[in-house]
Amino acid sequence: MYQDVLLATDGSEGARQATEHAIALASRLGADLHVLSVSEEGPHSTEKRDKMRADAEDEAVQAVEAAERAAIDEGLEVTTTVRQGVPQEEIVDFADVNAMDLIVVGTMGRTGLDHLVVGSVAEAVIRNAPAPVVAVREQT
Q1: How would you write 2-40 as a 3-class SS string?
Q2: What is the CA angle 98-40-62, rounded to 5?
Q3: Which domains are assigned to the chain?
Q4: First and final C-alpha spacing in the chain
Q5: Do 91 and 60 touch, CB atoms closer than 8 A?
Q6: Is the pLDDT of residue 44 over 70?
Q7: Strands lying side by side in the sheet with 4-8
Q8: Phi, psi (5° rounding) for residue 136?
Q9: Looking at residue 53, what DSSP letter applies?
Q10: Which residue in 5, 27, 58, 117 has its CB near the most CB atoms, within 10 A?
Q11: SS3 letters for 92-131?
């Protein structure tokens, strides 16, 4: 049923937890794992960036490489992609163009004003995705 699983990651703690979940799912399902990270553009992209790593492209590359290593360690077939743009738009487009069967994303669980100002990538993916979405909430 699910042969191609898309993991969207930004390297955050929530994304690392989603990575573990995606790897476990892909392993149990015998699916290929496709890892995507988006070098973010937009008005809030600098707010999310770690002060020590100012290069968004480098962050995206590091995020997919970390997920790729973890997936390979579990014996999965994995492909990686880095795109530039608005994360939710790029995730949905990638899933559509590449006929993904399932999408796994992490969520930070923002609420209130923070949610209204920054929005939710996971929420936008869920609303617009061409495939089922598993949202993994960050556990602290």
Answers
A1: CCEEEEECCCCHHHHHHHHHHHHHHHHHCCEEEEEEEEE
A2: 80
A3: 4-137 (3.40.50.620)
A4: 32
A5: no
A6: no
A7: 78-85, 32-40, 4-8, 102-107, 133-137
A8: -105, 115
A9: -
A10: 5
A11: HHHHHHCCCCEEEEEECCCCHHHHHHHCCHHHHHHHHCCC
8-state DSSP, 136: E
Predicted local confidence at residue 114, as pLDDT? 44
Please classify residue 111 by burial: count the beta carbons closer than 10 Å to its beta carbon, then call 0-12 exposed, 13-18 middle and 19+ buried: exposed
DSSP secondary structure code for residue 78 in this structure: E
pLDDT at 41 over 80: no
Q: Name the helix (H) or strand (E) containing 57.
A: helix 56-73
> Cα dihedral angle (71, 74, 77, 79), rounded to 10 degrees?
10
Residue type, 120: S
pLDDT: which is higher, 116 or 54: 54
